[in-house]
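Feature request, filed as a ticket because there's no other form

It would be nice if the structure record came with a short human-readable summary line next to the tokens. Right now we just get the raw output. Example of a typical job, pasted below so the devs can see what we mean:
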Amino acid sequence: MVELVDHTGELEMRIEHEELGGVYAEALGALAAELVDAPGDAGPRGRRPVDLRASDRDTLLADLLNEAIYLAEVEGFVADGLEPERIERTRLVGALIGYEHPGARPAVKAATLHGLALAPGGRGWRASVVLDV
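Raw output as currently delivered:
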């Protein structure tokens, strides 16, 4: 489940999922919805390898979203899913799943470290990420 909360110049994602990999995948799906107005105009599905290292799980989530924002801006590739091969406390290896979209608009500038949180909670994992828009 993803809840989006508007702030002035920011958009906050609140994510809950049973699995850690699901949190990452849900965050990518919510980001993709912000990057395109009409996903039906998408090109064929594709993959982009991802191998990220960060100081902790929280930062790894922000880095993953920032990688997706970069791919949308530079290549027009909209990542809306994740195929994780390995998720560790400070490393994520796998593939971003998505599509090329001619109308990808990088309205989201970056995932920030402000208010960033990712921890076990409830029946799985909870995360909060603030996007600079």
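Something like this underneath would help us a lot:
The longest strand covers residues 77-87.
The chain has one domain: 2-132.
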